[in-house]
Design brief:
With 136 residues, the protein is α+β, with helices and mostly antiparallel strands. The protein has helices spanning 41-63, 102-116, 118-123; strands at 4-10, 13-18, 23-26, 67-79, 87-99, 128-135. The protein has two domains: 1-39; 41-135, GMP Synthetase, Chain A, domain 3. The strands form two sheets. Strands 1-2-3 form a three-stranded antiparallel β-sheet, with no helix packed on it.
Length: 136
């Protein structure tokens, strides 16, 4: 079981802490009383997707004996113009550097986004998720 504790710091600023004591700051926009001093909850979803898929991609590449120097992911999301303002489209772009073949990177990204990444599987129920890759 996963547990997160959320504690209000002030105004719309909160601190989320996991069972290991690791934390992240969330905050709302100034227009509702926040101070823009943290991540938004919907941004945290995209961070989760980037992190989950990055772990998968890196692990798959390393298992395939690819010499990955670095891996960067840029995730963008479009939200509905309605309440709730859910993500309707999400795109993840993976950029690997090192001795990595395009074919292996493409396979690793596809496996993560379509099979292994739990966050992708969850978000894919309400949003169209696309992905791309490049060797940098």
């Amino acid at each position: 079981m996963t547990e997160i504790n959320l504690k209000r710091v002030s105004g719309y600023k909160f601190e989320a802490t996991n069972s290991l004591g690791k934390s992240a700051t969330l905050d709302g926009p100034a227009k509702i009383g926040g101070t823009d001093d943290g991540l938004r909850p919907m941004e945290m979803l995209l961070i989760g997707l980037a992190g989950c898929s990055s772990f998968d991609v890196l692990h798959t590449l390393e298992k395939g004996r690819q010499d990955v120097e670095d891996l960067d992911v840029k995730v963008t999301g479009e939200r509905a113009d309605a309440v709730p303002s859910v993500y309707t489209k999400i795109h993840a772009h993976f950029k690997a550097t090192g001795k990595v073949t395009d074919k292996r990177l493409a396979q690793a990204v596809q496996l993560s986004m379509e099979k292994y990444c739990s966050v992708s599987a969850m978000l894919g129920k309400s949003a169209e998720i696309t992905f791309s890759h490049e060797i940098g």
